[in-house]
Design brief:
single chain; mainly alpha; 2 domains; 6% strand; disordered N terminus
Length: 340
């Protein structure tokens, strides 16, 4: 055998011997093949420098593109793995971002139950990385990664030489763990959406308050005062519901939509407050005050009623409906014709 033939025979003929293009980011599948080739040679005691260098290059390029690998499970019997990466914050104070990577089709093609739960991991990871930020995202992603690691371990054991299907009890345990991770995501996402919602409310209330302060400094206007009182009542109502744990938001719609909805809430409360205030000043409704009551007292009473209208929109609607005769007449049921 010639020297060239001996040299080629000494090098492994698999994906790890390919030269990595420095201008191209390797895929996760390429990283898995490079790692599997490296681990196989490490196990057999035949690790070559070319395999080691190729694996180091692929891993380094992958981490530069997706972040540092903080958790990983590499299958022993087949080319499959799950990896959690984390990108460090930038110079502008951005929060770290986690990413979930999975390639497990080789390990789960005979384990449909495990594959189904891993698809749930993918869905929950996408929702967590899109909606959550900061510490909540890291906690949720680590919970997802823990469940994915155990699931892939079950599939990997079923793909070996001494293959055995995963126990249904073990799959049920990981299904419960994934359900707990999903429950944490819902709680964290709702709390985060509440913060964004409250920020939208605060911005609108401050804008309304500045406008009203400038207007009322010139002259008293019932509508302007009612607008401020109703907006404040709406904010207090939301704070009370948040403290009681009964305030749920649609957190998967994104931050901008939650901010938009939060900004609308004080405006809606202010609109109902203005309607109630105009109903009292216009004579449609009457305040239980004496005729000798001072103008200042009547104004304070209107502010209280406006605050209640913003605090409870249902009360404002019922009050306005009860004050309009034709609405009550339209809602009244028609009398039944006696039989015979």
């Amino acid at each position: 055998m010639s020297e060239l033939t001996q040299t080629l025979a000494a090098e492994p003929k698999h994906a790890s011997s390919a030269t990595l293009d420095p201008n191209r980011t390797p895929s996760f599948a390429e990283l898995i093949y490079a790692h599997h080739a490296w681990w196989r040679e490490m196990r057999d005691g035949t690790l070559t420098r070319r395999t080691q260098e190729h694996y180091d290059q692929v891993r380094e390029a992958f981490q530069q593109a997706h972040g540092q690998i903080v958790r990983a499970y590499w299958c022993v019997n087949v080319e499959s793995a799950v990896v959690l990466t984390e990108r460090k914050p930038g110079f502008l104070g951005s929060t770290p971002r986690c990413s979930f990577h999975r390639e497990t089709e080789w390990a789960t093609h005979d384990c449909p139950e495990v594959a189904t739960e891993l698809h749930r991991c993918d869905e929950l990871a996408v929702r967590a990385t899109t909606v959550l930020t900061g510490v909540r995202q890291r906690i949720c992603m680590n919970l997802v990664m823990a469940a994915a690691e155990h699931l892939v371990a079950l599939a990997d054991r079923g793909a070996g030489e001494q293959a055995s299907p995963p126990s249904p009890d073990l799959v049920d345990q990981e299904r419960d763990a994934l359900a707990r991770a999903e429950a944490y995501y819902k709680e964290a996402a709702n709390g985060q959406a509440q913060i964004v919602y409250f920020a939208g409310m605060t911005a609108v209330v401050l804008a309304v308050g500045v406008f009203a302060a400038l207007w009322l400094s010139l002259s008293w206007t019932t509508g302007c005062a009612a607008l401020v009182a109703g907006a404040i009542g709406a904010v207090i109502s939301v704070i009370q519901r948040i403290n009681s744990g009964s305030f749920e938001l649609d957190y998967d719609v994104g931050r901008r939509y939650a901010l938009f909805l939060g900004g609308l809430r004080p405006l809606i409360g202010g609109a109902f407050a203005m309607a109630i205030a105009f109903a009292f000043t216009g004579g449609l409704l009457h305040l239980p005050l004496s005729e000798t009551e001072s103008p200042g007292g009547r104004r304070l009473a209107l502010l209280v009623v406006s605050f209640l209208a913003g605090f409870s929109e249902r009360w404002a609607q019922d009050t306005l409906v009860s004050a309009v005769p034709w609405v009550k007449k339209a809602e009244a049921p028609s009398p039944k014709t006696p039989a015979g």
